[in-house]
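Entry:
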Amino acid sequence: MTKEETLQCIKVMQAYVDGKTVQARYGAVQRNEGNWHAVNPNWDWERYEYRVKLEPMEIVVWVDPEGTRVSLNTFYPPSDAAWTKKKFREVVE
């Protein structure tokens, strides 16, 4: 294991200590494939690949009353008060 790989392992392990959800996939280290599953890790770095569960990205947009225009200014609505604030969240599996 290289120093860079060791540092990545430490980051995942520290996230677990900090209460984050850790996911693993079996036998996928070289192939970079397979499904991720939430685990109570046993830290078998030779057979499993580990990562911190991805957080979904969330964006806020303002939609005009007709639903034909959007504004990506998330802090303030457009000058027309009739615009509606909508939240969208990415689906992360």
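The helical segments are 3-17.
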